[in-house]
Design goal:
This protein has about 300 residues and is of the alpha+beta class. Helix content is about 20%, strand content about 30%. A hairpin with a 2-residue loop joins strand 15 and strand 16. The protein is elongated. The two termini are about 15 Å apart. About 5% of the residues have low confidence.
C-alpha cells in the first residue's frame, strides 16, 4: 500500500500510537510519519505508507503552521499543560501592548533551547528519559526560524496565537520563554497543527473516518484492501492524497510503457520535455507515481527514488 494519508491526530495519543493504530487497521507494516506531534497536541500528522516512506527525505525541513494558547502565571517542567508546575502562581500584570512587544522578539531567526522533555539526545540518550528520572538535562540552544507569530487574542492571562515556523521549532519553548521574558512564567496550554508542507486540515481525516472506510472496504468474501502491486482499495483511496498533489514544486511527467519498465529497474530514460526542472515526479498513468527522477542531461533522467518496482 503506497500512499500519503493525513490524520487529524486527537489529543492524548502519541504520534507512534497513531502509526500503530493505522498499521493494524490497514494491515500495513511499513508506515511512518512526517514530523512528531506531542501527545497533548492535535492536528495534522502526515503518514507515509509502503514504498512512499522513501518520500520522507523530501519533507525533513518542511514548514509547519500552528494555532494554540499560552497560559501565563506559572511554568511547568514539560513547558505544557501536562507537566508539573515549576514556579509559584504569579499575577499577570502586563497588558496587550507589552505582550505584543514581547512576541515580536520571537519572530525571525532566533536561538531556542529545546525543552528538557524532548527527543533531543544528551550523550546518546533522549532528553525526556533523563528528565523523567529527574536528572539534570542540559541542551544547547539552536538557531530556529519563526516566520509568523501573531497574538490573536489575550484575556485573563491566556493568549491565543497563530504561528508559522521552520522545522525544528518547539512551540512549547516559545511559550516557556515568553513567560520568562514577561516575568510571570507560562506554559503551552493547547496546540493544533494546521499545516505541514503542502498538507492542510482540509486534507485530514480522523481515525474514526479511517476505521469506517477500512471496514467498508473489507466487506465481502474476497475484497482485499491492497492489491499485489500495492494499490489501495477504491473506498480507501479517497482518503489518501492524490499522488499528483505531492511535492507540488516538482513537475509531473507521464512515462510510456517502455520507459516505465526501465525506470522500475532503476534505469535512466528520456522523458517528455515539459520543463527544465532538475527533478520530476514520474507517473505511469494518472495516479501511479513510480519514481522521483533527476535530470542527467537534456531529456535524460535517472530515477533518484524508485517507488514502484517490477513484479517478479
Amino acid at each position: 500500500m503506497n500512499g500519503v494519508l493525513i490524520i487529524d491526530k486527537p489529543s492524548g495519543l502519541t504520534s507512534h500510537d497513531v502509526v500503530n493504530r493505522v498499521r493494524r487497521m490497514l494491515g500495513q507494516r511499513s508506515i511512518g510519519h512526517l514530523g512528531t506531534l506531542d501527545p497533548m497536541a492535535t492536528g495534522i500528522l502526515p503518514l507515509v505508507t509502503g514504498n512512499f516512506t522513501r518520500l520522507a527525505q523530501f519533507y525533513v525541513n518542511s514548514e509547519k503552521s500552528y494555532e494554540g494558547a499560552i497560559r501565563f502565571g506559572f511554568s511547568t517542567d514539560t513547558y505544557d499543560a501536562e507537566g508539573e508546575p515549576t514556579s509559584d502562581p504569579r499575577p499577570v500584570a502586563f497588558g496587550q501592548d507589552q505582550l505584543e512587544s514581547a512576541a515580536a522578539r520571537f519572530r525571525g531567526l532566533i536561538q531556542q533551547t529545546p525543552p528538557p522533555f524532548s527527543a533531543k539526545k544528551v550523550k546518546g540518550i533522549p532528553a525526556y528519559k533523563l528528565a523523567r528520572k529527574q536528572q539534570a538535562v542540559t541542551l544547547n540552544p539552536v538557531q530556529i526560524e519563526i516566520k509568523e507569530f501573531a497574538i490573536t487574542s489575550f484575556d485573563a492571562g491566556r493568549a491565543h496565537f497563530r504561528a508559522r515556523v521552520a522545522s525544528g521549532t518547539y512551540m512549547r519553548s516559545v511559550a516557556h520563554d515568553i513567560g520568562q521574558l514577561l516575568g510571570c512564567g507560562a506554559h503551552l496550554e493547547s496546540l493544533r497543527r494546521t499545516q505541514v508542507a503542502e498538507f492542510t486540515l482540509a486534507d485530514a481525516h480522523t481515525l474514526e473516518e479511517l476505521v469506517a472506510a477500512a471496514g467498508k472496504s473489507a466487506v465481502g468474501p474476497a475484497r482485499p484492501l491492497v492489491s499485489p502491486e500495492g494499490a489501495v482499495d477504491d473506498l480507501l483511496a479517497d482518503l489518501f492524497i492524490h499522488p499528483r498533489k505531492l511535492l507540488p514544486h516538482l513537475p509531473c511527467v507521464t512515462a510510456d510503457e517502455t520507459a516505465t519498465a526501465l525506470i522500475r529497474n532503476g534505469r535512466a530514460v528520456n522523458l517528455p520535455e515539459l520543463s527544465r526542472a532538475r527533478q520530476v515526479k514520474v507517473f505511469a498513468g494518472q495516479r501511479n507515481l513510480i519514481a522521483i527522477a533527476t535530470r542527467v542531461a537534456g531529456t535524460l533522467f535517472h530515477p533518484k527514488i524508485v517507488l514502484s518496482v517490477s513484479q517478479p
